[in-house]
Design a protein that fits this description.
This is DUF4407 domain-containing protein. The chain folds into two domains: about 200 residues, no CATH class; about 100 residues, no CATH class. Helix 1 crosses helix 3. The chain contains eleven helices and no strands. Helices cover about 85% and strands about 0% of the residues.
């Protein structure tokens, strides 16, 4: 047995002394140890990449990846080493069910960061789609909110300009009527006589009145228009600042959660990528469950009998030690009682 086999046997959590007495079992336990070791390595790479995506710090990613890999290694080693080949298959399967569920969860945890790395190009494109979609949604939300805030100001300003345009049209109409009257154009409201007559004089007075009304209204509303323009411009500047400060950017939207969202959307819209994602996850779940399943479906071998004997020996030793302690304690109690009774009789 070389040092590599010994190292893998340590990884499998098997008892090397008992395996040396059953050499036919060594290869099986070496294989189990190799699966546990490589699962821990993949867990380290996966968690390291996930942490690097979050904090963008390679040293923190390496440290956390090693720590996570050691934890997965120790957990898998404990799960496999604690399984015992006792009872029928159904009983063993029930006993191993919590361990199988835990192994499946660990497989999913390990697979997800590696999926993000495998589909990185597709995820980057989907992130751009999400960023643009979020920008549009943010702009629509801000526009609606500020449209409601500035609605009263805009409505009042529009009403003022509508009134000004109406007065201007009335003034222009009066000017046109005066010109037609002077040049002698025949219409329903003009006499058709050339020159400046009484009708032209009345039309000039009407034109002058419309001009005065327009000028007076514009002079009256000018301060209010300036104030309304200031209010609307201030709201517009505030809206633009809020858009500039709140809208997502490509640099700020590349975290782990964002990539998970992009991958989830890709698997829903792209069937091929969704199938590939399921296969990748299935591979890692199967890899994580492999040591447990191998231990479960493998027949009971010499190593298992030796392990049962070894553990039963200690169990019997414990029972014998307890019986000896109980017997010794009862004897001491009986002796003490006899001595006490004799002392009482002597005193009497």
């Amino acid at each position: 047995m070389n040092w590599i086999e010994k190292f893998l046997l340590i990884c499998s959590g098997s008892h090397i002394g008992l395996l040396e007495k059953s050499p036919t079992e060594i290869n099986k336990h070496v294989g189990i140890g190799g699966v546990i070791l490589f699962t821990a390595v993949l867990a380290s790479l996966s968690s390291g990449y996930a942490l690097y995506s979050v904090f963008d710090n390679i040293w923190a990613a390496i440290g956390f990846g090693l720590l996570w890999g050691l934890m997965i290694f120790n957990l898998d080693r404990f799960i496999v080493a604690s399984m015992r080949k006792s009872g029928n298959f159904f009983r063993q399967f029930l006993a191993a069910t919590p361990r199988i569920i835990l192994a499946a969860l660990l497989g999913i945890v390990i697979a997800k960061p590696l999926e993000l790395r495998i589909f990185q190009k597709e995820i980057d494109k989907q992130l751009n789609v999400i960023i643009n979609r979020n920008k549009t949604a943010l702009q629509d939300s801000v526009n609606i909110r500020y449209s409601q805030l500035s609605g009263s100001f805009t409505q009042e300003r529009d009403e003022i300009y509508t009134r000004i345009n109406s007065l201007r049209e009335e003034y222009n109409l009066a000017s046109a009527e005066l010109e037609k009257e002077v040049v002698g154009t025949q219409t329903e409201t003009t006499t058709g006589k050339v020159g400046y007559g009484p009708n032209a004089k009345r039309k000039e007075e009407l034109k002058s009145a419309k001009k005065d009304e327009l000028d007076a209204y514009m002079a009256q509303m000018q301060p209010r228009l300036v104030q309304l323009d200031k209010e609307i411009d201030a709201l517009s500047m505030t809206k633009q600042k809020e858009l500039d400060a709140a809208q997502p950017t490509e640099e700020g939207y590349t975290g782990f959660a964002a990539r998970m969202q992009a991958l989830d959307e890709l698997t829903k819209t792209n069937k091929i990528l969704g199938i590939a994602s399921l296969f990748i996850m299935g591979v890692f779940i199967a890899l994580e469950m492999a040591p447990v399943l191998v231990k479960l479906i493998s027949p009971k071998g010499p190593y298992d009998y030796l392990l049962d004997k070894h553990e039963y020996t200690f169990k019997i030793f414990g029972w014998e030690s307890k019986e000896k302690l109980d017997t010794s304690s009862n004897e001491r109690i009986l002796i003490h009682k006899k001595q006490s009774d004799r002392r009482i009789r002597e005193e009497i």
